[in-house]
Amino acid sequence: MTDLHAAAKRCLDASDPEEKIRLTHAAWDALQSGALRAEPASPAPVPIGAPGRPERPQLVPQRQVPHRGLGSPEGRAALVHAVAHIEFNAINLAWDAVYRFRGMPDAYYRDWVSCANDEARHFSMLSTRLAELGHFYGDFGAHNGLWEMAEKTAHHDTARMALVPRVLEARGLDVTPGMIERLRAVGDEGTIAILEVILREEVAHVAAGTRWFRWCCERDGLEPRETFLDLLRDYMGRNLRGPFNRPARLEAGFDEDELDSLTALALAET
């Protein structure tokens, strides 16, 4: 196989997490070696459908996902499981960005395959930690919010780049430091070490979203800051939450004016 889009579809369709991870790492290695490339003339994708995933976890509305304290191994396992589910979805999101949007620059595809490879590694680390805590991926309920946004933004690359990496994934930059502090209070250094790796590497993933969102805006003659705010209003409604991790978001390509606007928008919705 030399067609990157076909490789992306194989990764998307894989339902077994270990197989999805294996295919993802193999595709990244093949892209780096030059064995895979995006075919400009490849056919357009079919309408978006659910990616491959195991029968468990059971998907429930976000408000029905239970919140447990971190004072017990069960509570810490539930937190690790929630982050693992985000990373599993992030693998699919990165591959869908590769598969769905054709005719993009080679650097675009390299960025998102690299992100998929990172997310697969994150999922593996979290799965190992879950096992250490006596659990496995699928033992707790989870929600499908990340993939629901992929479906909503399937029609246009600008909306996808704005709203998945720069909103939903960027939320991880905001909340992970607080998770780390809570885990430090209960002495869970094993989970902290993994979250610190994820936090550091997710900055680059959000930065990729920033880079390609602005590229799309320049291509289409759009002003990025106002376009981003318009997309937030159109797609997020009253669901934008702060506070925002300004240092991490600045490192990920946000500017001060954007962050001021985000803060004002979040405050107006509380």
Automatic annotation (TrEMBL):
It comes from the Bacteria. Residues 38-59 are annotated as: Disordered. PANTHER family: DUF455 DOMAIN-CONTAINING PROTEIN, SI:CH73-314G15.3. This is DUF455 family protein. Pfam families: DUF455 (PF04305). InterPro entries: DUF455 (IPR007402), Ferritin-like_SF (IPR009078), UCP012318 (IPR011197).
